[in-house]
Amino acid sequence: MTVLHVPERPVFDTAVTRLFGIEYPIIQGAMAWLSEARLVASVSNEGGLGVLGASIMSVEDFEAQVVETKRLTDRPFGVNFPLVLGDYHQHLEMCLDHGVRIICMSAGSPKVLTPRIKAAGALCVHVVPNLKLAQSAIKAGVDAIVLESYEAGGHVNVDGISSITNIPMVARHIDVPLIAAGGIVDGAGMAAAMCLGADGIQMGTRFLATAESNAPELYQKLLLEAGESDVPVHSRKFHPGRALKTPVIENVLKMEAEDRPIEEVRAFIGRGRAKKAAHDANLEEGIFYAGSGAALLEDVVTVRELFDEILAQYRE
Fold first, then answer.
1. Phi and psi for 125 in degrees, rounded to 5?
2. What residue ranges define each of the domains in the chain, with the CATH number in brackets?
3. Model-level pTM greater than 0.90?
4. What tens digit of pLDDT does each residue of 39-49 get?
């Protein structure tokens, strides 16, 4: 990817930039073990919104990430709690004590934490896959919606709704800021999403291929080598996920093609394979989650170069 010189970045005034107090409606999606303080702060320092992912971190370990992020930036940043993984009440209290005021939630009902977030005067953001859950989250009191369509990496919506249908469908039925996610890796994708009705975008996979990401070199190599058919959806019958085609995923796809019992496929996948990829760079045993936009990636750049590239392409 050729980084273009941007003498003056475009000025944005959208519902997302106003809500979060940021310059550009570009949010970095939280990724377990892959989006830590350095990346998060770099995104915020460039005028976007960096987001720390709590995943299965202890309160103490996550607090260290929050403190380090605050050391590296004085700009707004958020945190993300994947509710299906556990009870995040203590994590939330710690974040509020440290002055974090943008709380993102995913994979669960926002009703669990929303009352406390609102009582603290913080902003509440929820990740959803479709209109029905967006409306439910808004009834629970969230301030913004991240709409994660089928092109996204990680676990995806079971309905298989693509961005080109999902974004306008949700945009015309909600009255809170809408952030589009799934398959967006460049300025063209950003322009398309906002043309369809989004107020901003969220990217995860593209930020993995940056110098500030703590993704292992192997992970980044696989991203850059991925072709259009190398980021398939697996486990379609019980918990669909999109990941790079590696030995584990090839085995899962083979088992599904043979119509093996769901219990057998689930047992083969087991637990901890995402960490084996993101933390251990284990090609044989890890699941390297990524969105379909990985096929468009050409090189690893700095966060600043990425912002320059995206904003220049968006303006064109």
1. -120, 140
2. 15-214+297-315 (3.20.20.70), 217-292 (no CATH)
3. yes
4. 999 999 999 99
